[in-house]
Task: structure prediction
Amino acid sequence: MNHFIKVTEDTYWLGVNDHQTDLFESLWPLPKGVTYNSYLIKDEKSVLIDTVKAPYLTDLIDKIKAILGKDGKLDYLVVNHMEPDHSGAIKILRCVFPELKIVGNSQTKGMLESFYGICDDLVIVQDGDSLGLGKHKLFFHLVPMVHWPETMVTYDSTTRTLFSCDAFGGFGSLDGGIFDDELDMTYYEDEVLRYFSNIVGRYSAQVQKAINKLQGLDIGIVAPSHGPIHRKNPGRIIDLYDRWSRQETECGAVVVFGSMYGNTQKMADAVARALAEEGIEKLIYHDISRSHVSYVVKDIWRMRGLVLASCTYNTTLFPPMAELLNHLKNKMMKGRMIGILGSYSWSKGALQALEEFASSGNWDLIEPMVEVKSSPFDEDISKCMELGRNMAEKMKLCYVKE
Ligand SMILES: Cc1cc2nc3c(=O)[nH]c(=O)nc-3n(C[C@H](O)[C@H](O)[C@H](O)COP(=O)(O)O)c2cc1C
Ligand SMILES: [Fe+2]
Ligand SMILES: [Fe+2]
Result:
């Protein structure tokens, strides 16, 4: 028995839930799996929008056949994005449906050839082009670098559905509910932010361009290729994406420490305590050895303030802290405050590396920087608390002004 769900009268969700992959892109943990959402529109011409990761192809073919009938024809495949989590099924799909025409843009064309050796039966579209299916009419809008250069979105003007691929998508499988009105959206919105900040966040400027470009569309349903479909409140996810890609932050702070024996943690604790005493309620605390970097980056993306505390390890930063900084540099964050703390016992190293990091990016460094030899004593703890107070004060001023 095949199981498929209608998004609108003749638009079907053919998503698959992947609970086997532990790390998305071999990087990002998936404690509750991930979906690859593929959609089928059945009209005079039938069209599949995006595919799934290769191991789930059998499932996808079964569902297509169940909807179109055993000898049903699949006319088009729209390829919004070539990353293999969506394009993995293309090559074999063409063998199953030999009449299939692939719709993509000029950048898609090159990637179809370099990934799969596919060069023929292509329909190459340009920004704004349309494709009539009968009742339905699809419009293609290029949104380069959200997430790859060939990325585009597809809008069905008949059902007012935006098939947005990676944009507005997130981690977490859909086991039962697939629509925003059927799910606990607090969890899923947090996972959309983890997806956005780690995977798309670097391209925030391009996300802004895309949002501006889509502004003229009357969007009733947002149907991304990962995570929930937004039909009750499509404006909300677009608004969140808009805020995140403008790097709009909340009045809160993330305190991250790297500590082997607890001395550096005491310094981080003191800053956190001062922030709390000053009324900063949104305070998130991470042990960088134990929180996966993707969750730390997600929280840092949300908040205005960041405090980094690291012990020295073999003349430089504690290794998990160095890894976090590499991720942060790559994301090109803007408009955040930073406070830094370091500890050492003989040669120093951690604070200097944090200082270099703080001065190289777009950070507003809050004084004082604190460096401690081996273990913090009363005077050091007072300085850490001063840093917390200074950050809280400046933050509160920003949010009163804005
Ligand atoms: C494996 C290891 C390597 C270290 N490397 C250095 C170093 O290169 N230079 C230095 O000044 N301290 C070094 N230290 C000392 C620690 O940075 C220092 O004791 C610090 O206060 C430890 O903080 P913690 O209690 O938060 O782990 C090292 C300590 C360990 C255990
Ligand atoms: Fe992608
Ligand atoms: Fe994707």
User: Anything to note?
Assistant: The mean pLDDT is 96.
